[in-house]
Amino acid sequence: MKDRPAPSALAAVRFDPGDRPESLRNLTGATKYLDDLPEPANLLHAAVVPSPSGHGRRMRVDASKARELDPSVVVLLAASIPGENQMGTAVDDEPLLADGEWHYAGQPVALVLASSKRLARAAAALVRVTGEELPVVTDPREAFARGELILKPRVQSSGDLAGAFRAEAAGGKARWIVEGRAESDGQEHVYLETQGAIAEPVDGGLRVVSGTQAPSGVQKAVARVLGVPMRELEVEAMRLGGAFGGKEDQAAPWAALAALGAYVTGRPVKLVLSRRDDMRMTGKRHPYSTDFRLALDAEGNFLGLELDFYQNAGAACDLSPAIIARSLYHAAGAYRIPAVRAAGYMCRTNLPPFTAFRGFGAPQAIWAMEAAVSKAAEVTGIPALELQRRNLLREGDLTHYGMKMEDCRAGRAFELLLSRNPAARLEAEIEDFNASHADRKRGSWVIPLAFGVSFTKLMMNQGGALVHVFSDGSVSVSTGAVEMGQGVGRKVLVVAARTLGIPEDLVRIERTRTATVANTMPTAASTGSDINGAAALAACEEIRKRLLAFAATFLGAPDNELSLGNGLVLRGGRDSGLAWKDLVAKAHEARVDLSAHGFYATPGLSYDMKAERGSPFAYHVYGAALVVAELDTLRGSSRIVRADLVHDGGVPIDALVDRGQIEGAFAQGLGWAILEDLVYGKDGKLLSDTLSTYKLPDMRFMDFPIDIELLDDAANPKAVLGSKAVGEPPFQYGIAGYFAVLEALKAARPGKAGFFDLPLTQEKALDFLDGGN
Amino acid sequence: MLKSLRFRLNGKLVEIEGREEQPVLDWLREEAGLTGTREGCREGDCGACLALLGRRNLEGTGIEWVSAATCLLALGELDGRALVTVEGLAGEGPTPVMKALHVENASQCGFCSPGVAVALSHFLLAEGPRDEAAAVASVEGNLCRCTGYASIGRAARALSSDFSGLPLDFPTRLAALAARGVIPPALAATMQDLPEPASAGGPGGSPPLGGGTDWYVRNTDPAPGLSPRFVGRDPELRFIETRGSGEGATVALGAGVTVADFFASEAVRAIAPGIERFEVLVASPHIRARATLAGNVANASPVADLTAMLLALDARLVLSGASGARELPLADFFLGYKKTALDGDAIIETILLPAAPRAFSFEKAARRERLDIAAVNTALSLTLDPAGAMRGVIVSAGGVGPVPLPLRKAAAALEGRKPSVAAFREAMLAARDEVAPISDVRGSAEFRKRVLGRLLAAHALRLFPGAFTAEELLA
C-alpha cells in the first residue's frame, strides 16, 4: 500500500510499473473474457428469438424454416424447461421464455442451438413468432392511470407536511411553494462486453461460466429453471468487460438459457448476445416521471418537500422495489427538510424490465430534487448556491426516514468546493464570458451529494471469503466479489496483504466461484470492497491469529509483543528473525490450519418497513461538484468546459482506483444528463438499438479539465481500512451537467423559465431557444 | 467465397484458403486464436476490434499503416497486405504505449484496452502531427465505458510528449519505434513491405465494396459464398489527379480514394480552402482511413457527410460497368431513398470536381460531436465576383429528405447578391420550404427544419466573419 497522496496531487498519481499485473494483461490483450475462452470440441452456439412486438397473446412459434436451414438446429421453447419457467426474484412475473403471451418487444421466446454462432443467429432470424397484438403502454403515468402497478406504492413521510406548505397569507411560514415535473429518461449500460454464458455438463451437474455480477444469483436461478439442487451447479464469473448494474439480475436469463441448452442436449452451450440483441432484450436505467413540490420560507429555508416518483418499471418487477426504495431514501438529496412526503409507484409498462444501473434509483431522485432547487432559485431570486448552502444536511440531522446523520461531511465538501471556486469569482467568470461572446453562453451548477451506502435490501449486506496460505507463503483469496473493472480485486488484495503484513505480490485473487464461497450477494450497490474486503479481512485475521500464536510458542515470546509486517514476524516492532515464509512452513509442519473462511454482515443496519423508519445505510458518501457548460447559441449544441469535484473517499485503499471510479462515474452521469438518448417508439420497440444510434460519451465529449480533490482527514470507521465505497456516488455529479447547460440556455434567453426533461439534447435546447417565453 | 489469400499477420506470412467475405474480426478470434481483438459493437463504433493494417499508400510509393476496425474489414481485403494485432504489438511484453496507459490506470474492465493501445500505437506510427491534440484525437474512435477517458487522455498526452521528436520519414520512424519497443524489432522488420497477393484483383464479384465500412454495418454476418469486389483494394482505382487546365480543369478522385485521402489531398484543399477542418466531424480516424468517398455516395444515405460536401463542390460521377461508362451530375445520381443510378455491375469509378477554388463551409447537427451520424448536415460553396456578389452558389443538405439534396431555392436566394442579412435570411426561409424531413431516432422533422436554418446561418457567419451576427440572422 502506497501512502495516500496529498489531494492536490491526485491527478499526478500513477501506478508503479510493477503494480497490478492484471492491468498489463488487459493492455496486452492477454486477459480472457468469457467469449475468449477456448471452445470445447462439441460446443453448441445459441441465439435467442425475441418476441415480435410490445405486447401480445396466443403466441405461435413456427421454427420450420430454421430447421430447413439446417436440420441439426435445435429450437427450445418454454415447454422445454424442466423446472420452473420463472426468473423473477421479488415477484414471479418474469418467465425465462415467453409462454402464450408476451409483454415487451425483445422478450425471449425461443432458444436456438446450432453448430456455429453464425448458423444459430441465422436460424433464430428464421423462427416466426406470431399472435394476437395487444395494446402497448410505454408511459408510466398511463400505466399508473390504468392501475398497472407492481406491488403497492411505497410512501415515506416525516414532519408536519400540511404545516410546512401553509402559506404566509394563511398564517404559515411558506413564502414560496414551487412545483413542477421532472422527467428523466432511461440509460443503456453499454458494458463493452455483451451478456453471455457458457454451460457445460460436468460430473452429472453443470458448470456455468456467466458474465454476471451475481454468481450465486445465477446458481439459484438456473437451479430453479432446471429443477435441480444448487449443489449440482457450479457458477463461475470471470473478469467482466463492464457491468454497471446491467449484469446484477439480468445476467441470469442468459446463463439459464445456456444451462437449459446444455441440460437438454448434454453438450456444452455458449450464448453471447450481439450488441443489438443485448440492447433490445435487456433492461436499462429506469425512466422516471416525477412531480415535485417544495415549500420555502422567506429566507429560503426548505420547509417541506413532496415528490411523487412514477417509475417506469417495464414489463416485470426485476429489481424495481429495491430501486424505488433507494429513490425514496434519496428524495431530499443532500438537504435537510423537516417535512417530506416521498411516494414511489412502480408502473408496469410494455418495455423490457428496467434494472440496476449505477446509482440504482438515487440519480432519478437527486435529479428531481435538484430540479426543485433550480425552480426555487428561479422563483425566489435567491441564488441556487445560497439555497443549497442554507439547506445542506448537518451533523445530527434526522433524514425523512429517521436516520441520524453521523460524521456528516456534506458541508465540508461543499465549502471546500466553494473555497476552490468562490461564488463571486465563479459568477464573474460566467458573466464576463457571456458578456464578451455573442454566440456562446456559459452556465454553471454546483451539486451537493449525500449518498447512502448499503444494499437497500437488508439481508443482502453480507459476504464471505476463503483464504488459503500455501506452504510456500503465497496466498490465495476468494470472495464473492466479481471484478468488472471497478478494482475490487485490487482492494481485497491490499486488505489481505496488509492484514498478513506481506508484500502484495504474494497474494492472488481468485475468480469468483460458487463452490468456493457460497451464498454470495451480487457485487453491487458500491459495497463490493466494503463487504468482501471485510470478509477477507476477517479470514486473514483468523489466520494471523493462529500464526502469531504459533510464533509465540516457536519464538518463546509473549504473543502480545508479536505482529506481522514487511514479510516478517515482528517482535516489539522489530525483526524477530522469523520471516513470513519460514513462519508459514514451520506452522504447516506443526499442523496449524493455514486456511480460513471469513464472514461479514454489515453491522448497525435496521429498517422497519411498516413504519418506513430506520437506519438502512452503514454510512453516507459526501461530495460536491461544479460543472461549467458552454452553449453554442447558434446551433443549440453544448459541451462541458470544466469540472471541479470534491469527494469524500474516506481513506482510499487505492487512490488510483478511486480516481478512476470517480472519473468514470462522472462521465456516465454526464452522459445520462446531456447526451445519451434512449428512444423507444410508441410500439415499445427500441429505436436506439445500436451504438450508431445510441451515443455515449467519447473522448471528445469528456476532453475538458476535471479537478478532483479528496476530503482530507476523512477516515471512515464504518468500512474496511477506513475507506468508503466509491462506485456509484460520483455518478450524481454528472447531474450538475444538466443544470449547467440549463443555466447557459437561460443566459441566452434571460427571464425564460427552465425546463426539466433529461437528457438535455440539442433538440430540446433549440426548442427552448426558439420557443416563446 | 473461399479464396487463396496471402498476407502477413504479426510479421508471419499466412497463406490460407479463406472466406473472403468473413469479417477479419471473426477470423482472428475463431480461427487464428487471437482473442485480444474484441467485438464490442460490430459496427465500427467502439474500436475494441482495432488492428493495424499495412497497405500500399495512395501515391503507390510505399506502405502506409492505418488502424482499422476489423469487424468492418473483409478477410479478402488482407490479400497482399499485412495485419498487426495487439498480440503482435505485445509480442515481447508490454510496450511503452501499454505502460503509459497502465501507469494511469487507464484500463479498468480492460475489454476495450487492446483497441485503445492499438489506436495510440498507430498515432505514433502514422504520419501527421505528434502534439497533444493529435494524440487525444487518435482515440476518438474508441469507446470506453469505465474510465471516463480522463486517464486515457493523460496517457495519450504523456505519449505525445515522450515521443515528440519522432523522425518524419517512415522507415526511420519505424526504426526509432522499434528501438524504443513500441513495436517489437522483429515485427518492425517486416512492416516495410507487403507480400504478393495470392488472388488476382480486378473487376467481377459483388457487391462492390469500397472499404466496406457501411456495408458490414448492415451485413454483420455475410453468408459464406459471397464474393465481393474489393474496389478499395485496387491500386488502379485509388488516385487523385488533376485533369485538364484552366477553367475546365477537374480534380478526379478514383473509386478507391478514402475519406482520409480526400481531406489530406492538396488538390482538394486547393478547391475548398480549409476543408480539412471538417474532417474530424466525419466518422472516426479508423473509419476515415478505410471508408471511400465513392462508397459514401453509392450507399445513398440521406445523411452522408461526404456526399453533402461533394454536392456543394459540384461533383460529377463517372459510372462504369460492363455496359460502358457514363457521366452524370452527383445531384442526378439519387433516384429515391437508397435508390441510385447504378445498375448491373456498375460502380462509381471516378468522382470529378471542378478545380476552381470556392469558398466552402460544412455544418452538421448530431447528438455527439465526433463519430456520429448526422441528424442534418449541410454544405455551402460559392465564389465572389469582383463586385463582391455571390456567384455559383451551391447549398446542399442531408437528413431533410429521402436523398442528399441540393437546396436550389436556397442557393437561388443568394445567387448574384452581395452577402447580407437579408439574402441569407431569405435563403434560410427558402431552405425550410424546400425540404421535407421525417422524424426518426435522430430527431424530429421540426427539429431538422429548425436546425437546418441555423446551420445555414452558421455557414454565413463562417464565410463572412464579422459581416453580420447570429442574432441578426436568426431574428
Give an overview in words.
The complex is a heterodimer of chains A (773) and B (475). Chain A is of the alpha+beta class and 773 residues long. Chain A has 19 helices and 29 strands. An eight-stranded mixed beta sheet of chain A has the order 3-4-1-11-8-9-10-19, with helices on both faces. A six-stranded mixed beta sheet of chain A has the order 6-14-13-12-7-29. Chain A has a four-stranded mixed beta sheet with strand order 15-26-27-28, with helices on both faces. In chain A, a hairpin with a 5-residue loop joins β12 and β13 (302-314). In chain A, α6 crosses α7 (252-265). Residues 1-5 of chain A have low confidence and may be disordered. By secondary structure, chain B is an alpha+beta fold. Chain B contains 18 helices and 18 strands. In chain B, strands 2-1-5-3-4 form a five-stranded mixed beta sheet. A five-stranded antiparallel beta sheet of chain B has the order 8-9-14-10-11. Chain B has a four-stranded antiparallel beta sheet with strand order 15-16-17-18, with helices on both faces. In chain B, α3 packs across α6. Chain B starts with a strand and ends with a helix. Chains A and B meet through α1, α3, α17 and α19 of A and α2, α3, α4, α6 and α17 of B.
Distinctive features:
heterodimer; A: 773 residues; alpha+beta; 8-stranded mixed beta sheet; 6-stranded mixed beta sheet; 29 strands; 29% helix; globular; disordered N terminus; B: 475 residues; 5-stranded mixed beta sheet; 5-stranded antiparallel beta sheet; 18 helices; 18 strands
Q: Of all protein chain pairs, which has the greatest interface, and how many residues does each chain bring to it?
A: A-B, 83 and 85 residues
Ends of chain B: how far apart? Answer: 60 Å
Helical fraction of chain B equals 25-40%
Q: Write out the strand line-up for the largest beta sheet of chain B, numbering strands in chain order.
A: 2-1-5-3-4
The number of helices of chain A is: 19
Global outline of chain A: globular
Strand residue content of chain A: 15-25%
Tell me about the biggest sheet of chain A?
A: 8 strands, mixed
Distance from first to last alpha carbon of chain A: 58 Å
Poorly predicted parts of chain B: none
* SS field, number of helical segments of chain B: 18
- Helical fraction of chain A equals 25-40%
Number of strands of chain A: 29
Q: Which strands sit side by side, in order, in the main sheet of chain A?
A: 3-4-1-11-8-9-10-19
Enumerate the spans of chain A where pLDDT stays under 50 for 5 or more consecutive residues: 1-5
Q: What is the CA-based Rg of chain A, rounded?
A: 27 Å
The radius of gyration computed from the alpha-carbon positions of chain B, rounded to a whole number of angstroms, is 23 Å
